[in-house]
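Minutes, project huddle
Topic: does the predicted pose make sense with cytidine-5'-monophosphate bound?
PN asked that the exact inputs be recorded in the minutes so nobody has to dig through chat later. Recorded below.
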Amino acid sequence: MELKDRLIIALDYSDEAKALELVSLTREYAGVYKVGFELFVSAGPGIVKKLTALGGKVFLDLKFHDIPNTVAQASGAAAALGVLMFNVHASGGIDMMKKAADEAAKGGKDSPLVLGVTVLTSMNDRVLKEELGLPLGANAQALKLAKLAKEAGLDGVVCSGQEIKAIKEACGKDFKLVVPGVRPAWAAGDDQKRIITPREAIAAGADYIVIGRPITKANDPKTAAKRVLEELQ
Ligand code: C5P
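Predicted holo structure (tokens), as shared on screen:
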């Protein structure tokens, strides 16, 4: 895999034109673009085809979480869009994840990677224990869900930089880790708390890093993307 294919830029826009402009500016330095709720709900599934036409691969970040049958159907629809990867909540359970993986795999070798979402980084120990009644706390719960995702046959999980080593150890080197909350040393932290630099993330074993605002909100997004890729090299 080329290094630039490990850089995922988060297209957190509601305006399709802005998203496409960012892609044109950064295509040389990034191989994958993340389409989340904001852009997908505003622009519709057609945005995936437009991004693919510009040469970008797509991470469809819609975090499916429903009964197994419903998630299986949605997974088939995501695969039919031709995305590189999409995700489902690991807390939906093994049966739900297995059905998502089975449905996604029907396309053969061009099938998308299916990733599990473990514990959202907006959740801390207090929220898990006091609000949700989950006793383990965030780190242990994330590791438990990563193992469950592996058992269900998913290709990997989305995780924070702090969890890379433990999850790789538990789930093996081929289990793909996609890591957001990445900040180059020269960029502002924004609202991300548990941050890691691009170089640290890759050195720790991340397969892909997700970067949004340090590139999308930069005065010069092209140069920002170039600097991130250079740091990875
Ligand atoms: O702008 P920034 O680099 O913080 O964007 C990171 C992207 O990764 C956002 O789209 C955010 O929703 C997503 N994300 C995250 N933390 C997670 C999961 C996803 O920041 N645990």
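Observations noted during the meeting:
- The domain at 3-232 is CATH 3.20.20.70 (TIM Barrel).
- The first helix runs from residue 16 to 26.
No decisions taken; revisit at the next huddle.
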